[in-house]
């Protein structure tokens, strides 16, 4: 069984952001507003998402949506 993937989108910029939050965004490769990354659904990543919950949005995506994202906008 394949692990479910999560799409994370940064919705707020860098103005008045604590350093801990900014470091978490760097670890997730979310450098600017409106960036999107796909991560695995693991407890480690869930903890990071809880830390940045006021600055981002996320949700589980299915395999078809993942495939479409990679085809249209993805870089490996």
In words, what does this structure look like?
Helices cover 38% and strands 22% of the residues. It is an alpha+beta fold and 76 residues long. It has a 3-stranded antiparallel beta sheet. The mean pLDDT is 92.
Biggest sheet: strand arrangement = 2-1-3
The percent of residues in helical segments reads 25-40%
Q: How many helices in DSSP terms?
A: 3
What portion of residues belong to β-strands? Answer: 15-25%
Q: How much is the radius of gyration in Å?
A: 13 Å
Summed over residues and divided by their number, the pLDDT gives a mean of 92
- Uncertain parts: none
Largest β sheet strand count, sense and barrel closure: 3 strands, antiparallel
Overall, the morphology is globular
Structural class: alpha+beta
Q: What separation lies between the terminal Cα atoms?
A: 23 Å
Number of strands: 3
Query: How do the SSEs run, as a string of H and E?
Result: EHEHEH
Briefly say what this structure is.
By secondary structure, the protein is of the alpha+beta class.
Characteristic key phrases:
76 residues, alpha+beta, three-stranded antiparallel sheet, 22% strand, 3 helices, globular
Would you spell out the secondary-structure blueprint of this structure?
Layout: E1 5-10, H1 19-27, E2 36-40, H2 43-51, E3 56-61, H3 63-73
Antiparallel strand pairs: 1-2, 1-3
């Amino acid at each position: 069984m394949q692990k479910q993937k999560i799409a994370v989108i940064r919705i707020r910029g860098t103005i008045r952001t604590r350093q801990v939050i900014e470091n978490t965004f760097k670890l997730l490769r979310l450098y600017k507003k409106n960036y999107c990354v796909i991560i695995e659904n693991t407890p480690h990543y869930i903890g990071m998402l809880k830390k940045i919950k006021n600055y981002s949005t996320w949700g589980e995506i299915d395999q078809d949506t993942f495939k479409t994202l990679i085809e249209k906008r993805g870089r490996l």
